[in-house]
């Protein structure tokens, strides 16, 4: 199905700039990424390219309608969307101030910025010198998680699923980054209820793998609030999969 026809079904028949951008992304996808490996057909690929284009152009996109048109479940769509986005090297950009305005939490802006700064410093300090240069905190999941944890700390309600959607992360990735931030910056993000005995926290110098891929205990890791071992590799936390 032509991408213009799919755009019409999503209510974008007059958005020529959006359609043109989505078509460029689709061509890029055809060259750089084999979408069949994630079980995505041509219609689904076009829908996802339209969403990526809409996000980059700041155009409101009806994801529920897009998911229905794709014929996929919400979880499958989100997972494939993230894989496609990573596969063609496209990153969402999240602005702390814009998030604060959107969710009505303007007063936490300085706390989010401070928290991110502390997290970056402590994350880098935990890495071997040889791996610090490759650290990249530009992925939007870091901003989204810092924003969510600060809002929670200040007892403000924020739609977690909406944040996950905005940053283009999976729920497991969002959760793992959240665990990492709380463990490294408990003084900023934690609450008394969540606090644990320092003896029970095994901090890793190579940190966690944000996706549920497992490595041996000797490769490094630490224990989450639930007492389960959580492992992160810097390669996955910064590149995503």
TrEMBL record:
Q: Which GO terms describe its molecular function?
A: DNA binding
In which broad location class does this protein mainly occur, judging by the first location in its UniProt entry? nucleus
Q: Where is the ORC6 second cyclin-like domain?
A: 94-184
- DNA-binding: is it a keyword of this entry? yes
Q: Which GO terms describe its cellular component?
A: nuclear origin of replication recognition complex
- CDD domains on file: Orc6_mid (cd11583)
Give its localization.
Nucleus
Which part of the chain is the ORC6 first cyclin-like domain?
Answer: 4-91
What keywords would UniProt list here? DNA replication, DNA-binding, Nucleus
In Gene Ontology terms, what is a biological process of this protein?
Answer: DNA replication initiation
The text of the family note is: Belongs to the ORC6 family.
Function as written in the Swiss-Prot or TrEMBL entry: Component of the origin recognition complex (ORC) that binds origins of replication. DNA-binding is ATP-dependent. The specific DNA sequences that define origins of replication have not been identified yet. ORC is required to assemble the pre-replication complex necessary to initiate DNA replication.
This chain belongs to the protein called Origin of replication complex subunit 6
Gene label: LOC107428994
């Amino acid at each position: 199905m032509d991408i213009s026809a799919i755009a019409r079904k999503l209510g974008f028949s007059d958005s020529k700039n959006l359609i043109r951008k989505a078509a460029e992304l689709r061509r890029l996808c055809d060259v750089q990424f084999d979408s069949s490996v994630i079980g995505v057909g041509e219609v689904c690929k076009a829908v996802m390219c339209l969403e990526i284009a809409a996000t980059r152009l700041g155009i409101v996109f009806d994801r529920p309608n897009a998911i229905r048109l794709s014929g996929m479940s919400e979880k499958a769509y989100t997972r494939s969307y993230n894989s496609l986005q990573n596969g063609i090297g496209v990153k969402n950009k999240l602005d702390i101030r814009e998030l604060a305005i959107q969710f009505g939490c303007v007063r936490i802006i300085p706390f989010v910025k401070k928290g991110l700064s502390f997290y970056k410093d402590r994350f880098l300090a935990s890495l071997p010198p040889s791996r610090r240069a490759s650290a990249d905190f530009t992925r939007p999941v870091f901003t989204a998680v810092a924003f969510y944890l600060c809002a929670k700390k200040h007892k403000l309600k924020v739609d977690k699923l909406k944040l996950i959607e905005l940053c283009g992360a999976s729920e497991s990735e969002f959760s793992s980054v959240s665990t990492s931030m709380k463990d490294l910056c408990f003084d900023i993000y934690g609450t008394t209820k969540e606090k644990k005995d320092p003896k029970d926290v095994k901090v890793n110098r190579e940190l966690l793998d944000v996706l549920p891929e497992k490595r041996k205990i000797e490769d490094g890791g630490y224990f989450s609030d639930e007492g389960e071992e959580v492992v992160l590799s810097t390669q996955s936390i910064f590149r995503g999969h």
